[in-house]
Amino acid sequence: MIANMKYLLLRRLTQTILLVLYFGANAYGWHMLEGTFGASHLFGVVPLSDPYTVAQILASGFVVGADVLLGAFLITLFYMVVGGRAFCSWVCPINMVTDLANWLRRKLKLDKEEVNYRFLKRRTRYWIMALGIVVSAWVGLAAFELVSPITIMQRGIIFGFGAGIWVVVAIFLFDLFGVKNGWCGHLCPLGATYSLIGSKSLVRVEHNHENCTACMDCKVVCPENQVLHMINKESIMVTSGECTNCGRCVDVCNDDALKFSIRGFQLSEGKKEK
Amino acid sequence: MADSNNRRKFFATTFQSVGLTALGGLLWSGYSDAVKASSLVLRPPAALPEADFLKACIKCGLCAEACVNRDSNKNSDGTKREGTLKMAKGGDHQVIGTPYFIPTEVPCYMCDDVPCVPVCPTGALDMKSILNEKEELDINKARMGLAVVHKESCISYWGIQCDACYRACPLQGEAIVIEHHKNERTGKHAFLLPIVHSDVCTGCGLCEQACVTEKPAIFVLPIDKATGKAGDHYVKGWDSKDQERVANAQAIHTENERSAQDATDYLNMEVSY
C-alpha cells in the first residue's frame, strides 16, 4: 500500500514543509523561507519570485526591482529543468485541495460518464493566462493576484484566512461536483505558465510499452491524463509540459512500465523519443 | 452541404469564444477596477503613491513579517504585542494581500531601523524616499498619512484640558503642538488646542490610538485625502522663491467685443445671455 504512495507522500511532505517554513517566518521569525510564492527570500538572501506575477506587474506598467527580476529568473530556470508543473504538484497548496476533491470524486463515483464541456477545455487556461496579462495592462494592476486562490490560500495559512477561505472552498466544490480537475486542469493560468516554462524540461516520466499490461490505473489517477496518450502504444517519454511530474502514475503502476527519467536518456528498450 | 455546416460551426465557435473572452475580460477588469477604488487605507512607511503602490506590491508579506517579528514588540507588561502591518484578507475590504495598518488597533511605532522598508523586493516601499542627507534610513521622513483634528468632537476645543495626542506623538512639539487660546466662556481658563503640522507629521497614528473620545477626534487619513492643493496659478507675491516660478510668465490678452469698453462699464451693464 505504502509502496504505491511513495511520490504522493513525498509531495505532501514537500508541500507541508514549505508551508511550515513560510508560516514560521511570520509566526516565529524564521529566516529559511520568508514571504509568499509571489516573492520570497530563501535563507534571507536568495530572492525567488513567481514569473507570472512579475509578468503581470510589468504589464501593469511598473518596473520592478532587480531583486524580483532575478528571483523570477531563478524560478524559471529551476522549473525549466525539473518540469514546470512540478510547482503544481509538489509546491502549490491548492493541489492538496483539488487532489482531495478528485479523490472524493473517484470514491463517490461521480465520473461515470465523460462530459464534454464546450468552452471549458484544457486549453482554456492559456486564454486565461493571456487575458490576465491583458487585464493587468488595462486596469494597471496585477489582475490574477486579486483573485488567485493559490496565494489567497497560502497567505491564509501564513497570515490568517478571513473570508478568503470561501475561495478555497469554492475551488474544492467546483472540482468535486463541477468539472473533474476543473481548476488545476482547465482554468489556472499559473499552471498554464508553468506548462509553457516546463515544456522542454529534463525530468520526465518514461513509459515502457513492453511492460505495460494496459490496466489503465495510471490514466485513472492522472490529473492531466491527455499527456499519457502513449500508454500501451509506444515506449516514449511523457513530453507534454502539462504533465505535473506528480508521479502518481509511477506510484500506481504495478508492472514497472512507468518511471521518472531524464529527457534524452531513454532507459528502457524500444523506440527512441521522437 | 457538409462543407457549409463545418464553416457555420467554425464561425459559431469562433464568435462564441471571442464573445466569452471579451465577457470574461470585462468582468475581470470591472472587478479589478472596483477593488482598486477603495483607497481609504494607510500603507507602510515609504510606500509609493497608492496607484503606483498597487501596481508594484507583489503581496509577498515580507514587510509585515519584518514588522511583526521585532523583539521590541512588547506591551508594557512584557507580553508580546501584535505587529503593526496586517496583510489584507478577504472581507477586509482592501486590495487583497496588500499590507496596511489600522492606528486604533496597532499604530506604527516608527522603529529607528525601519525594518519593513529595505525588505521590499519590488520597490513598492521606496527606500530612497526616506533617506536623509547622510543616506541613512530616517523614519521621520515617512509620510504614511496625516493626522487631522475634528474640532467639534475634540474635547480640548470644548475647553476641557486634554493633551493625550500631544503626549503620544513621537515628534512631540513638532508634529503636534499645543496652542493656548483664551476661553471667553469662563473668562479665566485657557483652551489647550492640538495643532498638527503637516510638514512634520508622519501619519504613524499614535495620536489616534491615544485619543480619549469615543471615536477618535484626531485621526490619520491618507495624505492625498487629508490635503488640498492651491494650484499653480496662485503665487506668493511676498515669497521671492515662489516669485521665480512666474519670472518668465507672459500675460494673455483676450480680444472680444467687450474689450472696447472699460471693465467697470461692461460689468455694470445689463447682459442678456
What number is the mean pLDDT of chain B? 88
Low-confidence stretches of chain A: 270-274
Strand order of the largest sheet of chain A: 1-2-3
Largest interface: A-B, 54 and 41 residues
**Strand tally of chain B, please?**
6
Give the low-confidence spans of chain B.
Answer: none
Strand order of the largest sheet of chain B: 1-2
State Rg of chain A.
19 Å
Tally the beta strands of chain A: 5
**Residues in helix, % of chain A:** 40-55%
Intertermini distance of chain B: 70 Å
Number of helical segments of chain A? 13
| Quaternary organisation of the protein chains | heterodimer
Structural class of chain A, by secondary structure, is mainly alpha
On the 0 to 100 scale, the average pLDDT of chain A is 87
Major β-sheet profile of chain B: 2 strands, antiparallel
What's the topology here?
The complex is a heterodimer of chains A (274) and B (273).
Chain A: H1 6-27, E1 33-35, E2 39-42, E3 46-49, H2 51-60, H3 66-82, H4 86-90, H5 94-107, H6 124-139, H7 144-147, H8 149-159, H9 165-178, H10 182-187, H11 189-197, E4 203-207, H12 217-221, H13 248-252, E5 258-262
Antiparallel strand pairs in A: 1-2, 2-3, 4-5
Helix pairs in contact in A: 1-8, 2-6, 5-9, 6-11, 8-9
Chain B: H1 2-36, H2 50-56, H3 62-68, E1 86-87, E2 99-100, E3 146-149, H4 164-168, E4 176-183, E5 189-196, H5 206-210, E6 218-221, H6 223-226, H7 240-243, H8 263-267
Antiparallel strand pairs in B: 1-2, 3-6, 4-5
